[in-house]
Amino acid sequence: MANGKWQIASLKIAAFLDDLLKAHRVFAPVKRDGLVSFEPIGRGDEALLGFRNSKRSPKEIFFPCSETLFAYQEGEITVVPLLEERRVIFGMRPCDARSLILLDKVFDAPDYQDPYYVARRENTVIIGLGCNRPLSTCFCTTVGGGPFAVDGLDLLFTDLGDRYLVEAITERGEALVADSPHFREETTADVNLKAEIAARAEQAVSGPSVEGVKEQLDGMYDDPFWDELHEKCLGCAVCTYLCPTCHCFDIVDEAVNAQGRRVRNWDSCQFPLFTLHASGHNPRPSGKERMRQRMMHKFRYFVENFGEVACVGCGRCVRECPVNLDIRAVIEAIRTS
Amino acid sequence: MSELEELLRETARQLLAEGSIELVIGYERGTLPLRTTPCFIRDPDQVERLVWNASCENNLATYLHRATGKVGIVAKGCDARSIVGEIVERQIAREDVVIIGVPCQGVIDRTKIEARLDGRDVLEADVSEGLITLRGEGFEETLNLGEVLSEGCVTCHHRDPTLYDVFIGEPSGGAVEDRDEYAAVQALEAQTADERWAYFANEFSRCIRCYACREACPCCYCAECFVDQTQPCWFGKGDDLSDVMAFHIVRAYHVAGRCLDCGACVRACPMHIDLRALVKKLEKDVRELYSYEAGLHLETVPPLATFQPDDPQEFIK
Predict the structure, then answer these.
(1) Is the torsion defined by CA of B172, B174, B176, B181 positive or negative?
(2) How many CB pairs under 8 A join A and B?
(3) A263-291 tens-digit pLDDT
(4) Which pTM does this prediction carry?
(5) Helices B241-254, B193-204: inter-axial angle, 10-degree rounding
(6) Within this chain, do residues B229 and B185 fall inside the same structural domain, yes or no?
(7) Same domain, B171 and B243
(8) Which uninterrupted H or E stretch holds B172?
(9) Which residues in chain A touch residue B121, judged by CB atoms under 8 angstroms apart?
């Protein structure tokens, strides 16, 4: 494992990204129409450094909300080639990086490798940005992460004011920095300062413990608990689509006569259509079953299958739910039920 | 607790206790500053949860389609108009709903606050006497409530319910501000078709197809939405802009003459899409063509649900 540490002046970040742009497609946080999102940039100074987190999760850089798998015309098939370009994501938050570790368990498992996802993962280096000031809706520390956690990252940047401390997490991360003229030796003082900032940030994060939640859920499938919980849920997909760990999809053929394409689109367990059978029968006919599924998948089935909860505590669903159905409160209610 | 809330809770308690309703749909305190959350109360002892304030941003009428039995519902002006629409369209029966009308000072548009604070996290918020005070780590800011109200609320002329069984408190009176409610629509109308297309294309390019707009809307109650149909499949389900725009345009047409600009779709949209521009234009057209405003009367047949020989029809060429 790599363990190099450097510092870079804040004013040099743009030049560093410009250098990366010569050989990579670079994604960075940008503000468009008032919303922060990770998008390909054309110049280093387009990257936004002072942001809290993006509205949409950067999972879509690996698992896009729509992707064409192949097209066909009169029996002739055109396959969409797998991604070959080299990519760098700059500024990913540790919660979102951790979500990739969880998505890997689904899309890059011993028994199944999703070629589209795997190609994108292999070709993408991830530069993380520690969270000096987590939001009040963040709860990463209660679900196995932290504002300066390094799971899923190749490099970690920490904002120290006029400079950043840079820590290599993997060798391919280190390789991005090693030959760059913009980085200098770190100082012990900076390393200590980072440790202080990280400790403070960690302290600022709170949320419900997920300990014992899986065991509670094991016995709750038919519990009356689910009867009323869903009542206020509108049945939209804000929570699942903004979630960095939700990964359900639908594959459809968009065809006219003998011409068409096969597309993979995000799908949500909160939609009735998600489980509607061709016969007309729906095994999850109401919000009750759909809400139960969301909680069970994240905190029971995923734990059974992969040993971890499928939540990184980014708080997007907490902030964006149109009716303030707060997953933290649901976790707490399950724990104490 | 305000006097209004005290009255609201007492009314809900009575209605539940005497058995005239089985359920009250109202708002309770949310888990975040500036948020309330819809609540469903069946036990008279639980009415203390009910609140009424400028953060009651959801249109509760959207829950009536799925409710069974006799339901009491807390309704501000727009919620009540939506309920009128649901009764007129025979989605609910008048006798199955007890409308607890409340006066409305307008509801907060959180995106306006977000824009003002530019990423700073609100930890506490107070509203009093037309001012809103926001506090967070190292800052405190006081704004006029009018600056952060939903666009539709500022010029709303029907802040008090037009239909109710019980009305609580004092009527709100006219609009919060005396300005033209169609100013934004007129600005769009003045643009060229290409400019408008570019505007809407940019807005809808942010759509993630979560359908929060549809689900929040009391007018959107189709058992199967056209966009979900697969046989035939009218639209692609992906992020192709033409499919996304077609969904929003067709949805806007489906609610034309029925939408009353309650703003629930706008507030539900996580991507801050200007959905209002589209529906407000249709609302304006219906008003100009048929002198009709939705949700005001139980007896008036909605113009797009009827035909008369003298209807304007210059558009038929």
Answers:
(1) positive
(2) 115
(3) 999 999 999 999 999 999 999 999 999 99
(4) 0.95
(5) 100
(6) yes
(7) no
(8) none
(9) 52, 133, 135-136
